[in-house]
Amino acid sequence: MVQAGGWLMLPILLCSVIALAIIGERFWSLREKRITPPNLVNQVWQWYKNDNLNDEYIVALNRNSPLGRILATGLLNRHHPREIMKESIEDVGRQVVHELERYLNTLGTIASITPLLGLLGTVIGMIKVFAAIMTHGVGNPSILAGGISEALITTAAGLSVAIPTLIFYRYFRGKVDALVLKMEEEALKIVDVMHGEREND
Q1: Count of CB atoms within 10 A of residue 3's CB?
Q2: Which of 16, 172, 160 shows the shortest CA–CA distance to 105?
Q3: What pLDDT score was predicted for residue 72?
Q4: Is the full-model pTM beyond 0.90?
Q5: Interatomic CA distance for residues 123 and 148, integer angstroms
Q6: I need a labelling partner for 136 at 20 to 30 A (CA). Which of 9, 18, 66, 146 fits?
């Protein structure tokens, strides 16, 4: 089938392998427990309330998770006004978001280019069909079938890669947005609690 599809099947297959690798890696990396461990904010609050917040705790928190990294940045600026603490969290938050979105642009690109590769295969296949007609006429169906088969196989292969890739791209985009909102909510909660603007809940 790959041979029948012509040389354009190779980049389509390569795209499918890359997409599969990215999807597996993102499923592993974007686990909610890894990004926003449960009860982490409450633990930080207990450290703060018991006056246990030292550099060792903050370094451990920074290495804990993406949410921990954001909270650790806020804690390093806890003696500054609320706005400075919030700005430092937002700066690190942008870096964390960039890391969460890693490889998603590649996934989106694969979802966009594989149908175009399939379409290019269709065009090349149809060119071969018309070239065969010009050379041999329409009397030999097997010659025409080869070009038409190549056109249809590459189109089907391109769409078969693009459709699931696009689905997972949209899924991971939504997951990243949800995780970012949750991290922002948790970080602002600890900022407000430390500056006495809300009660710890």
Answers
A1: 9
A2: 172
A3: 87
A4: no
A5: 10
A6: 9
Which pair of tokens denotes residue 97?
A: 């978001």
Query: In sequence order, what are the residues at sequence separation of 6 or more whose Cβ sits closer than 8 angstroms to the Cβ of residue 132?
Result: 140, 143, 144, 146, 147
**Residue 200 falls inside a structural domain:** no
d(CA 132, CA 149) in angstroms, rounded, equals 14
The position carrying tokens 């890739």 is: 165
How many distinct structural domains can be found in the chain?
1
In this predicted model, which residue has the larger pLDDT, 33 or 51? Answer: 33
Q: What residues contact residue 105 under an 8 Å CB cut-off, 6+ apart?
A: none
Q: Is residue 142 part of a domain?
A: yes
pLDDT of residue 27: 94
From the list 124, 121, 113, the residue with the least C-alpha distance to 8 is: 121
Measuring CA to CA, which residue among 37, 34, 161 is closest to residue 110? 161
Task: Determine what percent of the chain is predicted with pLDDT higher than 70.
Answer: 88
* Angle CA 170–171–172, to nearest 5: 95
Whether residue 38 lies inside any domain: the answer is yes
Give CA–CA dist 115/12, Å, rounded.
9
Q: Which domain holds residue 30?
A: 2-194
Say what the pLDDT of residue 52 is.
72
